[in-house]
TrEMBL record:
Organism for this UniProt entry: Streptomyces malaysiensis
Stated name of the protein: Aliphatic sulfonates import ATP-binding protein SsuB 2
GO molecular function: ATP binding; ATP hydrolysis activity
PANTHER family: ALIPHATIC SULFONATES IMPORT ATP-BINDING PROTEIN SSUB, TAURINE IMPORT ATP-BINDING PROTEIN-RELATED
One Pfam family linked to the record: ABC_tran
PROSITE patterns cross-referenced by the UniProt entry: ABC_TRANSPORTER_1, ABC_TRANSPORTER_2
TM region(s), chain numbering: none
Length: 251
């Protein structure tokens, strides 16, 4: 387990089963406390989706977990695994490197190329290893980004609205792909999304960030396949929308 300091108290979880443990986390920019005493734990292999209004601090929390928030002041306790990968809304590929080189970037070992090829095949991009990023569609670029994250076999995958920029059909395909990759690799996942249906479709638990802390934490106890239309789905969806401050028409 790595611990992040810099205003934070470093801790190591006692049990081997927690992938993430956050307690009393404060992150502030100047006087503004964006995260204000936030508590959250993820078990190893658990898939948690996070919803929250724009500006509620979701990306700030992910940056803290990734150890990328050196510009924020903070306190509290936070522990995360040693191997963390991050996927952002934009794929952030290096345009001057071919697809395969984008995936092997920073990988070591004699089998790095082979592992990268396997990862690209897993996301449906076998045969595109020598393409330039600019030659790929947005969805394909995001699949390269997923391959780049998963080839590192992270214990924790942080995803910040990874499908937010994609059209609805591509997004639905990416849901299926992510669910399959998750089943195969089983990292703990913290997925930030604005899409309540995406959260319910993919996650074991959905949390809502509001007022600087976790304002709701609901398990997704729905039988697969989780399709809108069942009463249980509708109840959970409405509870989440209400927590997000969305007025749900009655009737
Ligand atoms: N480096 C920074 N300097 C100053 N303020 C910042 C910085 N980063 C974030 N903030 C502020 O912290 C608040 C939370 O930002 P954050 O990006 O975490 O929100 P978010 O929940 O991810 O929003 P969105 O859904 O729009 O992506 C915002 O008000 C933002 O302006
Ligand atoms: Mg954000």
């Amino acid at each position: 387990m790595a611990t992040h300091t810099g205003g934070l108290t470093a801790t190591v979880p006692e049990t081997g089963t927690a992938a993430v443990r956050i307690s009393g986390l404060v992150r502030a920019f100047g006087e503004r406390r964006v995260l204000d005493g936030l508590d959250l734990s993820l078990r190893a292999g658990e898939f948690v989706a996070m919803l929250g209004r724009s500006g509620s601090g979701k990306s700030t929390l992910l940056r803290a977990l990734a150890g990328l928030d050196h510009d924020a002041g903070g306190e509290g306790e936070l522990s995360a695994p040693d191997h963390v990968s991050v996927v952002f809304q934009d794929a952030r590929l290096l345009p001057w490197k071919r697809v395969l080189a984008n995936v092997t970037l920073g990988l070591s070992g004699a089998d790095a190329q082979e592992r990268a090829r396997t990862a690209l095949a897993e996301v449906g991009l076998a045969g595109r290893e020598d393409a330039w990023p600019v030659e790929l569609s947005g969805g394909e670029q995001q699949r390269v980004s997923l391959a780049r994250s998963l080839v590192r076999e992270p214990q924790l995958l942080l995803a910040d609205e990874p499908f937010g920029a994609l059209d609805a059909l591509t997004r639905a395909r990416m849901h299926t792909l992510l669910a399959r990759l998750y089943e195969r690799h089983r990292p703990a996942v913290l997925l930030v999304t604005h899409d309540v249906d995406e959260a319910i479709a993919l996650a074991d638990r959905v949390v809502v960030l509001d007022g600087g802390h976790i304002a709701a934490d609901l398990p997704v106890d729905l039988a697969a396949p989780r399709r809108p239309g069942t009463p249980e789905y509708a109840v959970l969806r409405e509870r989440l929308l209400v927590r997000l401050g969305v007025e749900v028409p009655s009737g």
